[in-house]
Amino acid sequence: MSREIxxxxxxxxxxxxxxxxxxxxxxxxxxxxSLVTGVSSLYETEPLPENNPGPQWFLxxxxxxxxxxxxxxxxxxxxxxxxxxxxxxxxxxxxxTLDLDILLYGARVIxxxxxxxxxxxxxxxxxxxxxxxxxAPDLRHPLLNKTMQELLAQLGDRSVVRRLDPQxxxxxxxxxxxxxxxxARDSA
Length: 188
Fold this sequence. Notes:
Layout: E1 4-12, H1 17-29, E2 34-39, E3 43-45, E4 58-67, H2 71-84, E5 99-105, E6 110-112, E7 115-117, H3 126-135, H4 148-153, E8 161-163, H5 178-187
């Protein structure tokens, strides 16, 4: 299997949100046959009431990962990371220490039990599109054929999404930011 570029959304609204997000990025960077090539800024986002995630605001971001893992294997790893960081697997819509979602897996369209890619609500959520447009503004949605920047510009979701500035640094090793990943790509 050839390497695919995958975008994984991460978020936390329970406990030490920054710590859970940092740990998630670090654990994803340790995956075999994979390389984290970019991490968006962190965004503080209001919870969407339809999922009943509790009153605490989320920290959200996106990881860009190059991987040889199959989509199902990557999903299993994401669920294990969530579980290891205290996610309640029985109440996936409630408050969460960590949520990992495979948003895009290359240009693939996947509809398998437990895994739909592109994520079916990706184009409807500001807390996903803001960091995704930051990380890959010209990336095209495989079904809608619009860039992430275009999807963000036409978005009807008016929920509050605030980019944290200055960005907190990772306490668990280096994590490539949008600018450092772009500079590394441009110099190659």
